[in-house]
Design goal:
There is one protein chain. The protein has 354 residues and is α/β, with parallel strands linked by helices. The chain folds into two domains: 2-54; 74-351, Aminopeptidase (3-Layer(aba) Sandwich), CATH 3.40.630.10. The protein is built from ten helices and eight strands. It has helices spanning 2-14, 25-54, 74-86, 95-110, 173-193, 220-227, 256-261, 263-275, 293-299, 334-351; strands at residues 114-123, 129-139, 146-152, 198-204, 238-243, 252-254, 282-286, 305-309. Strands 1-2-4-3-5-8 form a six-stranded mixed beta sheet, with helices on both faces. Strands 6-7 form a two-stranded parallel sheet. The protein binds zinc ion (ZN). Residues 156, 175, 208, 323 line the site of zinc ion.
Amino acid sequence: MKRMEKLRGVLNNIFIPKLLRKLHPAWLVLLVILKIISVIVFTFLIACNNNQNTDKPTTVAPKDIVITPPSFDADSAYSFVKTQVDFGPRAPGSKAHEKCAEYLTNKLKSYNLQVVVQHGMVTTYDTKQFNISNIIGSYKPELKNRILLLTHWDSRPIADMDSVDKDKPIDGADDGGSGVAVLLEVARQLNIAKPSYGVDIFFSDLEDDGENNNNESWCLGTQYWIKHPHVQNYNPAFGILLDMVGGKNPIFPMEGTGMHYAPSFIQKVWDVAGKLGFSEYFIDTQTGTTIDDHFFINRDGHIPCIDIVHYEPEKRDYPYYHHKHSDNMSVIDKNTLKMVGQVVLAVILNEGGA
Ligand SMILES: [Zn+2]
């Protein structure tokens, strides 16, 4: 008893509120034990939370997710970039270009898409002639309601923005490789998810063999396709072009050509990106107009088409490795591939009501 009284005195002096001081000392001891346990648990929870916060953040992480993210295998997409780069630069006329065309054709067929490979002669600004391979894989080709997804699969034959080896071809891991990789994984997922909308995946050739300040010299494969569509009266609801969609710390602004021709579709895609928690990357800043495959599809093909393209408005430039030899596997971030793939798939699944 005495011990209890002594303890009560000690406790009173420490932290027992006045109202509790009249309790039996045994209850007080119990309260103190409970208090100590709660402090330990609380401290542990804070420690766990801090651990999470000190984890190195991934380059791309979603915030405030509103819609369920579709399945998309980032490792699979990453391996698709690597396979392309391993062929060597896919510059027109090269062995690597030929091998890659065969690989892409077989890959699309393996996902049960109906594949058309379109050939035709084009002439570049420096009067070289090439036989292009435009590769189109169609999911549910019988359906009238369709979405066009496209990206170029060739890589630039020169490194004109570099300070060394300017006349040598680039790997084009991001510029060429990433868009193809995302759409190959999208094709694989379509074969699994089976949405109720028709989808055409178009790998355009000879996008990147143009001359600066010569608009018409770019996107020769797409320009050919517009004049010779792979099916008659081709009329998709809209198109989404991917270009440089695999780099670290990407910025995808509302690109100006798309904003001029197809602003409502940019809004639609950016809304989906926001609901998936990616508004930090799909920013609502509008940039100037760019010449890319979608420019010709809008202007000459009269199909509303937007461009998801890594462009840094503050620098008014593409990423630092654009048209340089540093556009190699080291710049590729599988989280970026996944983010873009999920946005594209969510748009398709949303459109199809699946
Ligand atoms: Zn390029």
